[in-house]
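TA notes, week 10

Several of you asked for a full example with nothing omitted. So below is the full record: structure tokens for the whole chain, then the designed sequence directly under it. When grading your own attempts, check the secondary structure regions first.
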């Protein structure tokens, strides 16, 4: 079965030959395990791809986001990095005062100048399932621009300037998604890390009031053009999964072992679980038998004639043999 068909059948619960494979790789991995990474990618090739990106107007950035030092992103946020292979943190937010500092923010409209022809040509040339080269992330980008503590204060009692800025950011993200939805990609992606270890970072009520309508617009834009929507969100987000299902989200990447497979089983057949295997303990510390058991448990709890993607992150501290075993276990489960 070709990759594009395998993913489509997975998302529509139509009995794919096996779950699609997808390995996420941090730059840290290229630095520490280049040979092991190459072997895993060769043995378990991904069913997904991203299109090549060329911009008529190059987005303005400074530095390398994954090297020690400072990096300025497309919005003008400066990240300080103390370790190679991962991204740093914003120590000095751009927006310290809503009335005075908003003009410091650069909306990266250069992203709208991507080469549509190049994207479409790539989509026609591959059987892989292609996700768009954009990723709206309003909550996280607000944290980078405003600082996490300041943003939480804004969310507790939103000033009018905050709401005005959020509306402007949302309009930009909608415009960007509209342009990508006109291309021949199969899917678009959105993300925001909404969970701590045991709960949401903000109240579900605040989330539903301020952010759920944004995601509804993003999903509606994609679906209106026949594209699926994938979303990533770390942490314990059990409280908003019913909302994401209600909005029509197609696939959710989340820390399922943080929330508990038994609790997530209630949503089996309603949304595709886009991974993942526990990277807090199992991937760095688990035995091969524990990895195989985790994959088996995931399969039993959440697979329903589809609805599961064998996604795994090869990142900080993960053992190469454990990452490899994840994909071997998924393959073995469906070759019995």
């Amino acid at each position: 079965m070709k990759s594009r068909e395998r993913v489509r059948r997975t998302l529509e619960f139509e009995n794919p030959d096996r779950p699609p494979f997808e390995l996420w790789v941090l730059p840290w991995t290229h630095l520490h395990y280049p040979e092991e990474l190459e072997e895993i990618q060769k043995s378990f090739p991904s069913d997904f791809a991203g299109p090549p990106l060329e911009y008529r107007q190059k987005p303005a950035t400074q530095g390398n986001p994954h090297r020690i030092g400072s990096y300025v992103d497309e919005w003008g946020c400066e990240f300080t990095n103390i370790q190679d292979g991962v991204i740093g943190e914003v120590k000095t937010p751009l927006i310290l005062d809503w009335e005075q500092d908003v003009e410091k923010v650069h909306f990266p409209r250069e992203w709208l100048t991507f080469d549509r022809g190049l994207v479409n040509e790539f989509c026609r040339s591959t059987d892989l399932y292609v996700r768009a080269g954009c990723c709206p992330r309003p909550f996280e980008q607000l944290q980078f621009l405003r600082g996490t503590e300041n943003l939480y204060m804004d969310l507790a009692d939103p000033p009018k300037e905050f709401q005005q800025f959020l509306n402007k950011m949302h309009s930009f993200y909608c415009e960007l998604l509209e342009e990508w939805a006109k291309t021949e990609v199969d899917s678009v992606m959105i993300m925001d890390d909404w969970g701590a270890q045991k709960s949401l970072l903000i109240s579900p009520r605040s989330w539903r009031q301020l952010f759920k309508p944004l995601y509804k617009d993003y999903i509606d834009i994609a679906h209106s053009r026949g594209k699926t929507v994938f979303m990533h969100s770390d942490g314990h987000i059990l409280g908003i999964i019913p909302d994401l299902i209600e909005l029509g989200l197609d696939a959710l990447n989340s820390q399922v072992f943080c929330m508990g497979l038994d609790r997530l089983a209630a949503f089996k057949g309603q949304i595709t679980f886009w991974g993942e295997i526990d990277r807090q303990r199992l991937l760095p510390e688990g035995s091969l038998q524990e990895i195989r058991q985790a994959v088996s448990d995931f399969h039993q709890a959440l697979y329903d004639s589809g609805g599961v993607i064998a996604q795994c992150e090869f990142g900080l501290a993960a053992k190469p043999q454990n990452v490899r075993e994840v994909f071997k276990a998924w393959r073995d489960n469906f070759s019995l």
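The mean pLDDT is 96. Use that as a sanity check on your answer.
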